[in-house]
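User: Sequence in, structure out. Go.
Assistant: Echoing your sequence, followed by the structure tokens.
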Amino acid sequence: MLSKYFINLLLLVSVTFVGGHILKDISNRKSKTMLFKVLSGLFCGLFGVLMIIYSVPIKEANTLVDLRLYAVMIASLVGGIIPSIISGIVIILYRIIFYESHIAVLVAAVQIASFIVLYEIIDRLTKDHKKRWVYKTITSMAVVLVTYYFLLCKIENVFMILLQYAFMLVVAGILEFILIDYVKTTNELYKKYKNDSTKDFLTGLTNTRQFDIKLNMAMERVQINKEKLSCLMVDIDFFKKINDTYGHLIGDLVLKELAEVLKKSIRSSDIIARVGGEEFCALLFGCNREQSFEIALNINKAVQKHQFPIGDNQFIQITVSVGLSIYPDMTDNLETLKELADTALYTAKRSGRNRVCDHDRCMTSEDIL
């Protein structure tokens, strides 16, 4: 009995780590899709089947004891009721096809159905994942012990079998709780570090390294789809004066606030990044020259009108200069797109700042009709 139980325990540990490794790259949005729920249900169902294959046979009652309940519990934990139902169906189908005892199969079906209902009730009653696991383990043990007593009640040493099985479930439950908590914490840290590696630490915008990757992807996209791609280089006017007058902490506050203004001034489909100290870059898809100028001038105007908090209920106003280039309207070489926008930015600076320039035209927010 102990050897089969040990195999079940090893399967539990292995599947927890393998599943955790797979989940670390799954976003919250993807984890809510029906495809993910179906696949996770099938995965946990096959895991439950493995548990049955290495189960402990009770020959006197023509039944099996194992840790399959944790397969359904993990499915519930990962995706809710739909994966639980799918995993339960897989387990019961396997039980029906490969084992003859109709009473034992019926009891197994009752167990699985009870697990699914109880897990859903517990999920609705509490959001704390630790309490959920404890409540699910306790209620699952109650269900399996009661149903197995029904099957084994005529056996002389029934209470000893149930006691040993209860001990197996408790040990497995405690071990799995520790493992899942470890995997959950590790995955959260991994996602945080991965996200931080692509974000600017101060503004939360895309950082310059990730921007280069997105720029290359954007270049591939517009070539394939034959789209237009505009590049805006945005730079704060006289930012050094702000740092010298108010200090670098206030300068950081201004940068963070400007990032919010920029995000609100472009479309959700566009890309905005911080690519230097006070320099930002935006990529606009599908905009011609006039549309690009309109968005750039709206940025210029929004910044000029915005009150930037500097603490103690005080505010300052700033301006930005913007350089603009467009593929293929201004260049047929995507590799030079950012460089041309940077050159146009210097033109805007030399032309008096607080304006938008491309290779041969400069406009201010006052030019917006």
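User: And one key feature?
Assistant: Strands lie at 56-58, 63-65, 229-236, 271-274, 279-285, 308-311, 314-316, 320-327, 356-357, 362-363.
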